[in-house]
Amino acid sequence: MLWASCVTPGFFEIEHSSYVVPENAGQVQISVIRLGGKDGQIRVKYKTVARSAAAQTDFLPVEGELVFEEGEDRKFIVVQILNDNVREPAEMFEVQLFDAKAGRGVINFRGTGSKPMTVVTIQDDDSEKI
Ligand SMILES: [Ca+2]
Ligand SMILES: [Ca+2]
User: Fold this and answer.
1) Angle at the Cα of 62 (from 125 to 114), degrees rounded to 5?
2) What are its GO biological-process terms (predicted)?
3) How far does the centroid of ligand 1 lie from the alpha carbon of residue 79, in Å?
4) Residues with Cβ within 5 Å of ion ligand 2?
5) How many Å lie between the centroid of ligand 1 and the Cα of residue 4?
6) How far is the CA of 83 from the centre of ligand 1 (A)?
7) 61-119 pLDDT, tens digit each
8) Which residue of 43, 44, 59, 127 shows the fewest CB atoms closer than 10 Å?
9) Who wins on pLDDT, 91 or 128?
10) Which residues are within 8 A (CB) of 128 and not within 5 positions of it... i.e. 6 or more apart?
């Protein structure tokens, strides 16, 4: 038997395709949103992927899972940004969503939409003070 209330579970996206944060910001909050419906429980895993920014040096890598209960449509991934006193170019890392799954009784789940990842640019704050 189908639960009529779980036929439009929606899908996941990262709200913005890029984020820019100064390296002294302490952290960056990546918003994960649920679009197209709020029925039932859906979940998605996430991880940071280093590009020119180095894990442990420029940011603290995170990995985990977000669980959206029925009616929930926004959650945040928080990544700690590490400051230094080195003059350097802007550096980047990615946050990716993967392995989206629907809970029990949920049908029509599409997983992730057109924005399953975002690029975070860390801007240096040491270049201007000489
Ligand atoms: Ca700095
Ligand atoms: Ca710096």
Assistant:
1) 90
2) cell communication; metal ion transport
3) 17
4) 84, 86, 88, 124, 126
5) 53
6) 5
7) 999 999 999 999 999 999 999 999 999 999 999 999 999 999 999 999 999 999 999 99
8) 127
9) 91
10) none
pLDDT at residue 127 in the model: 80
Nearest ligand (C-alpha, residue 83)? 1
Q: What's the CA-to-centroid distance between 28 and ligand 1, angstroms?
A: 15
More confident residue, 100 or 128: 100
The one-letter code for the residue type at 122 is I
Query: What domains lie within the chain, and their CATH numbers?
Result: 11-123 (2.60.40.2030)
Q: How far is the CA of 91 from the centre of ligand 2 (A)?
A: 10
CB 8 within 8 A of CB 19: no
Distances (CA, A) of 111 to 4, 86, 93, 102, 114: 19, 41, 23, 8, 10
- What pLDDT score was predicted for residue 11? 97
CB 81 within 8 A of CB 123: no
